[in-house]
Specification:
The protein is α/β, with parallel strands linked by helices. It has one domain (about 15-175, about 185-240): Aldolase class I (TIM Barrel), CATH 3.20.20.70. It has 9 helices and 10 strands. It has helices at about 40-55, 80-90, 105-110, 125-135, 150-160, 190-195, 205-210, 215-225, 250-265, and strands at about 15, 20-25, 30-35, 60, 95-100, 115-120, 140, 165-170, 200-205, 230-235. The strands form 2 sheets. An 8-stranded parallel beta barrel has the order 3-4-5-6-7-8-9-10, surrounded by 7 helices. It has a two-stranded antiparallel ribbon with strand order 1-2. β5, α3 and β6 form a beta-alpha-beta unit. α8 runs parallel beside α9 (about 250-265). The longest helix has 14 residues, at about 40-55. Bound molecules: phosphoenolpyruvate and manganese (II) ion. Manganese (II) ion (MN) binds near residues 37, 208, 234 and 245. Phosphoenolpyruvate binds next to loops. One of its GO terms (biological process) is aromatic amino acid family biosynthetic process. Its EC number is 2.5.1.54. This is 3-deoxy-7-phosphoheptulonate synthase.
Length: about 270
């Protein structure tokens, strides 16, 4: 993962979507990934996909297997949610990104996803990292909530060492001492630090990073100003009714407005 490994050059992660190849990397336009925390039903995922596509997103996110803190919270619809993501992909041309929690589901997820997400809670699940490294789909590796930069880069190294060079790093907030006003502390300093240390593309998730939709626009703009290559943003057609992460989800209108603001400030979207 070291930048020196590529003699100082950034790497690119090229992903094929039905609408064409999308490239993540330092010298490429910002890639926006948007969608609900969880795939809840057909209507909501298709509507969200159409709306975020119209606003300029290139990938649809949506959880089928959800890593919830409480076992009594909604756990995701599993395989049937993957089928719904496939319908949304076909309807819109968006690429699909969804999380793998268990290596037993990896094969089926890889059939449906254009990018496979490893979540914060599994960042140091080394056996899972080896397995996502041994399959061919690009990997979106979120930072563990108490992981150092070194821990995170070593987690990426597991995937690279297993033979998969298509890894995108995503900062999603770390645990600090204030949980009252923000869910996590979004570590934007990770962007320039990673830029020095690694050739891999860098994404920011301001939704999990702050926990509140009203803080997502300013953190998105700050992330772009700091040089990120990609944003992952949670969007739900009715955040108040969301089965997970409603408070941090933008409405489709809020997302559209944000995309217009982002286009003004930097890397073309
Ligand atoms: C998610 O993207 O919905 C998610 C669970 O993220 P994280 O692993 O960053 O908490
Ligand atoms: Mn979420």
């Amino acid at each position: 993962a070291s930048r020196q490994f590529r003699h100082g050059e950034a790497s690119e992660v090229k992903v094929n979507t039905p609408a064409g190849t999308v490239v993540f990397g330092e010298h490429h336009p910002l890639v926006v990934i948007a969608g609900p925390c969880s795939v809840e039903n057909e209507e909501m995922i298709i509507e969200t996909a159409q709306r975020v596509k119209a606003s300029g997103a290139k990938f649809l996110r949506g959880g089928a297997y959800k890593p919830r803190t409480s076992p009594y919270s909604f756990q995701g619809h599993g395989e049937s949610a993957l089928e719904l993501l496939a319908k949304a992909r076909e309807a819109t041309g968006l690429g699909i990104i969804t999380e793998v929690m268990d290596a037993a589901d990896l094969e089926i997820i890889a059939e449906f996803a254009d990018i496979i997400q490893v979540g914060a809670r599994n960042m140091q699940n080394f056996s899972l990292l080896k397995k996502v490294g041994a399959q061919g789909k690009p990997v979106f590796l979120k930072r563990g909530m108490a992981a150092t930069i070194e821990d995170w880069l070593m987690a990426a190294e597991y995937i690279l060492a297993a033979g998969n060079s298509n890894v995108i790093l995503c900062e999603r907030g770390i645990r600090t001492f204030d949980r009252q006003y923000t869910r996590n502390t979004l570590d934007l300093s990770a962007i320039p630090v990673l830029r020095d240390l690694t050739h891999l593309p860098i994404a920011i998730d301001p939704s999990h990073g702050t926990g509140w939709s009203n803080y997502v626009p300013s953190m998105s703009m700050a992330a772009i100003a700091a040089g990120c290559d990609s944003l992952m943003i949670e969007v739900h057609p009715n955040p108040k009714k969301a089965l997970s992460d409603g408070p941090q989800s933008l409405t489709p209108q809020g997302f559209e407005q944000l995309m217009q603001e982002l286009a003004v400030i930097g890397k073309a979207v």
